[in-house]
Each structure stands twice: as structure tokens, then as C-alpha cells.
Amino acid sequence: MKKTKILGLPYGVWMIVFIVFPIFLMFLYAVRNSAGNYTIKNFSDFFSPIYIRILWDSVYMAGISTVICLVLGYPVAMIISKMPEKKRNIFLVLIIMPTWMNFLLRTYSWMNILGKNGLINKFLSLLGMAPMDLLYNDGAVLLGMVYNFLPFMIYPIYSVLIKISPSYLEAAKDLGANAVKAFIKVTLPLSVPGIITGITMVFMPAVSTFVISDLLGGGTHMYMGNLISHQFLQKGDWNFGSAVSFIMMIVILVVMCITNKFSKTDKESV
Amino acid sequence: MNDIIIEARNLCKEFDDEVVVNYINFIITEGEFVTLLGPSGCGKTTILRMIAGFEEPTDGEILFYGKKLNDIPAYERPVNTVFQNYALFPHMDVYDNIAFPLRMKKMDKQTIDEKVKYYLGVVNLKGYEHRKVDQLSGGQQQRVAIARALANEPKMLLLDEPLSALDAKLRKEMQKELKRIQKDVDITFIFVTHDQEEALSLSDKIIVMRKGEIQQVGSPTDIYNEPINEYVANFIGESNIIDAIMKENYKVEFMGKTFDCVDERFPESTKVKVVIRPEDIDLVEKGTTPIRADVLSVTFKGVHYEIIAEHEGYQFMIHTTEYRAVGDRVGLSFGPDDIHVMRAEQRNILDAKMPEDNVIEFLGARFECLQEKEGDGDVKAVIKPADWIISKNTKDAKLTAKVTIVSYHSERYEFLAEANGVKIMLESPDAVKIGDIISLDVDKDDIDIMR
Known about the structure:
The complex is a heterodimer.
Chain A: H1 2-30, H2 41-46, H3 49-81, H4 85-96, H5 103-114, H6 119-126, H7 138-161, H8 166-174, H9 179-190, H10 192-208, H11 211-215, H12 224-235, H13 238-269
Chain B: E1 4-15, E2 18-29, E3 33-37, H1 44-52, E4 59-64, E5 67-68, E6 79-82, H2 94-104, H3 109-122, H4 138-151, E7 156-160, H5 168-185, E8 188-193, H6 196-202, E9 205-210, E10 213-218, H7 220-225, H8 230-235, E11 240-248, E12 251-254, E13 257-260, E14 270-276, E15 282-284, E16 291-300, E17 305-311, E18 314-320, E19 329-333, E20 340-343, E21 348-356, E22 359-362, E23 365-368, E24 378-383, E25 388-391, E26 400-409, E27 412-419, E28 422-428, E29 437-442, E30 448-450
Parallel strand pairs in B: 3-8, 3-9, 6-7, 7-8
Antiparallel strand pairs in B: 1-2, 1-4, 4-5, 9-10, 11-12, 11-14, 12-13, 14-20, 15-19, 16-17, 16-19, 17-18, 21-22, 21-24, 22-23, 24-30, 25-29, 26-27, 26-29, 27-28
């Protein structure tokens, strides 16, 4: 008992220095003004229509991209989980491989594809068509999010699907369920834990991203991530920036609590 | 009343060129408790999965009341399976598991409720409706799996080693339960197991399998008392197996002595094997029997002692309630009923000549073989009856033969044929008649060469 406590010490120190202390520091900034006096103004300022709108837009965009990732990712995860082992590994690597490349680089390359003189518009002009405005809109931001976060949806769903014993599916078919019914009644409910993890893994980075919305959205819309980076980097208002960060942590916490509630009711039966 | 429910015709299954089920035929009648018995890898589970619809036969067909089952998907087949690991849906409680097939049939709520309660009663699990599956013991999960399969009211229940995950005591209990449930619901059960004791105590009919082929089909008493060959004798219970010669009907010679027996049907002087079960050998006074043996070892087995005793180089295993010490000299006795005569494995030993490497000549024909020529090339070719490639098409045949004697043994024909004046033993799943002219060939892998 004592020994494990000693072994755990470095981790405890690590967590205090790099997690608890910075959060505490952020909290201190959030509850003070630039003069150093304690105030709740930073929080109350946030609850104005303009910022609530930004919060709503962020949650909305992250939500849409999570749904798209789920709809695209689930079938892919399912197809891969049914492949023979060798083929399965190749496809998994192919899906994970883009994440080995720098996130910024990947987002920049989308600018080259979608831009005014980008690949697509060059192709269109070859066909004699007028160039289209593909970049700097919500569609481009959504595309960037889905492209970047899709692997984080596929992987957890895949790892749950692969563990579901094929005998459950056989049993369902044996008991009169055709392929569609067997999926709805057996595979889908058993894969809920993977779906929950996937949603969390996609929603969290999507709601707080500012790189994608900056580069592909071109600042036409401001989202939570942009708001925070703007406060810190442009305006230098660390106090308000910290408060917004706190609010976003709370939003994520609430979303996680809701999804956890789903996975808990599921865990009880699993 | 006892209609044929399942008939397998030339059923074959290959996985990646490996033959798992090798062109077998069998019949199962209504209301039977049939066991497919064999060691792992003998193809018994594959047969079950083909009946259930999880595997497609490579060749041959399965008939259900005379109707071909091959193209009907698993979810439409009137059979249900109890899986080895039960495969109870972990996200549903006991009630929902049993209701699953009923909901698939879109029955109304009240009917479902009645049926679930009824089948919970059948498996003695009343009051467990809303337990979670993982809160049940292995035996209880087993019962839920049976109730779920029965709730669908199938014509036939398939059980894939359902008792193998249970401990010994529970297994005994579930054996009795299975037998009772089968009587209660009165449908055909096909049971797969590698446990001979389970097979003997449960079944109406046992199909003994080995390497994808059926060895013997019969009632438990038939199979135990009259094993058709050494493999079945060894697999079903323990046995003493001795080489013997059938002198004439009811007389068999082994260990240099002639014994009375109850077997006939064997041609005179056929090489056979006799099986004597350990519990059929009695320990008697030394003076009253010609078989005297020295006790080599004694093991206490709970209900009986297992004694190994040796008589003139022959070792016997004896199960008895009487104690004998190691080194004792004992008399052994067994009656004509206790001697079970079975066929020895047959081989054709033919005079042959090897004119050059990898070529062998016998019965006036030339064949490829796998050996190099040595010395003058005079050898013997040894070929098992089942290894001949038999065809009714005699055009361009390298060797033809005329069928002289045919006998039918549990799904296969054994027959003698005469080729260039030499009688050879043959075996085939296809029917042949006396007087048929057949062409013969043999694969180079199947020719054993003796000098």
C-alpha cells in the first residue's frame, strides 16, 4: 500500500504542476479585472447576445460535424471490422496515416484545393465553367472538421465492433432476425460505447478549434476557439479570455455528462 | 409418425481446400435425440452449422422433410440453436432475450408474455424475468439459452456442446434436464459433443464421427457393445482390443485359444479384432479358467478398482469392486456375450514390380508411385479398400474389375471385385451391384510399398 503511494507520487506532482495549478491560475485571471480586483464582470459580460451567438454557432458547427462523422464513420468502421485480418490492418493504417502529418499542414492543403486558384477551380475553368467560392464559408469549415476528426470517430467504433462476438449476430439470425433487424437490435446497441467515445473525441476538439475556422472560414464567422485566441493574442485581455475558456470547459463538461449518462445506462446491461 | 425430419445427402464442406465434412449421408427422424460425437475437428459442429444455415455446404444437400434447405437463409429455417457460449444478448435482460424471436415474428404483447413465462417454466427459471444476463450462473445462462431457442417453437433444436462450459456436477444435472425438456417439448434434438459419456446417457441415436466421416450410427447400446472398428471402441469407453481370427460362425481365436462368441456374418478365417470392456472381465479362481494373469497395477477409481493384469504378453484392463494387490496371480474370465468382434482394418496386399523409379506395376497395370527402385524391383503394394478410385466408366480404363460380393455397412458399400484373377477389397459410398464392371485407379499417395 505504502509502496504504491510512493510510486504514484511523481504522477501526483505532475498533475498538480501541469493541470491543477494552471487551471487555478486561469481561474484567478477569470475572476479578476486587469487592475487585479476580484469581479464577476468577465463572466457576466459573456452573457450578451453577441457572445451567446458565438457559443451557439460553435456548438452547432461541432454538433453537425460530429453527426456527419458518425454517419460517415460508422459504416466504414463496420466494413473494416468485417474484413479479413490482413486487409483490416492495411485499411486501419490508411485511415490513421493522415493524422501522422501535421494538422496545420493538412488544413493548409485544403486551402490550396478549395481556393480561388485552387485545384477544383482550375479544373472547372478547364471545363469552361466560372470559378466557385469554395473557401471562407461554413461549408469549408465543416469539411475541415470532418476531414480532420473522422479518424477519431472511426477508430473507437471499430474497436468496439471488432470485440462483439460474431455468435451474437448468428444468434439473432437464428432467432428470426434478417440482416437489417440483427443490426438494429444487436450490433447497434452493443456498439453504443464506441459511438459515445467517438462523439466525445470528435465534439471536443471541434467545438474548441480555431485553426480550422481561421484558415478555412477566413474569419467570416467567429467561434469559441477564435474568440479565446482573439482575446489572448490580439486584444491582450487575458481576464476575459480566461473566463470564456472556463465557460467552454463547462459546456464540454455538460456535453460529456450527457453522453456519459447514455454510456452508463448501456454499461449496466453490458 | 416417425417421419424423416433431416436427411443429409453427400454433404461436403471444405474450408480453404481442407475437407472438414467428407461426403456424408445420414437420416434423422422426428422426435429423436441424436448426438454427433467425435473429437474436436471431426466436423460435427460444421454439420450443425450447415443445418442451422451459418455455413453453406460445398457440395451435397440437406433435406428438411424432403425439402431442400440449402438456399433458405438462417433466419427463415425452422430450427434453432443453443450456442456453446450461449450467445445471450448482453444488452437485454432474461425476459427480452427470450422474447427476441417472438418480437421478430411480431406477436402481440400478451402472447409474448405468455410464451416467455411458459418457457421460463419449462427450464425452471420462473421469477428470473428481469435479471441481467451477467448476473446469472453458467447453468442459469444455459437454461435461458434453451428457453430462448425453444420460444421460437422450432421443429428441431440444435445444441453445440452446450454443457462443455459447466462444471462436472452441474453438467450431470443439466444432462437430466435436457432429457426432460426434450420429452416435455417433444421435438428433435441434435446434440454435438466430444464427451462419450454425455452421448451415451442422453441419446436415442449416436453418430460417431472421425475426420469428417461417419464411423458408426446406432443406439448407445449398439455403439457401446458392438463398435464397428477400433476407433469407435476406443472413443466410446475404455476397452481391451486384441487381434483375432474368426474361425467360423460363433468361434473366434485369439491369444492362441478359441473362444465362443455371438458373432456371425464374417467369412471364415477373417482377420478381426475383439473388444472386451474392462467391466466385463471377471476375476475368478485360478483353477477355473485358462487365462491366468499377473496384476501389474491397481488404481482406486472411487466406485471400482482399475486393475492392469498381464497374460502371456497381453495386458488387460479390468474394472472390479474386488481388491487385488500388485503381483497377485489372478484368473480372468469373460463370457461369449462379452466378446465383441469387429472388423480389423482391411488392406489389399498385392504382388508388384517396380521396373523403374516412381513406377509400379501390379494386377497387370502400371501406376505412378512415390518411391525409387531398389534391387530387383520385386515389392508388395499395400492399398486400403477406401483408397481405390472407382468409376463405372470403363472406357480407356487402365484396370477393370468385376464385382463379386457386395455388402452394405452403415452408409457405405464394401465389396470384392476380381481384377485379372486377383480378388481385391473395395469400399465406396456409391451403390454397386454384383456383376458390375468397374474401372479402378489409385493415387500415387495412396500406394504403400513394402519389400
